[in-house]
Amino acid sequence: MTKNIIYSQSSPYTYTPYFWSDQYGSHFQYFGHAKTWSKIVQRGSMESNTFTYFYLDDQNMIQAVFISNQAKNALPVRRMIKNQTLVDPNNLADDNLSLKKIQRSLA
Question: What is the pTM of this model?
Answer without folding.
Answer: 0.84
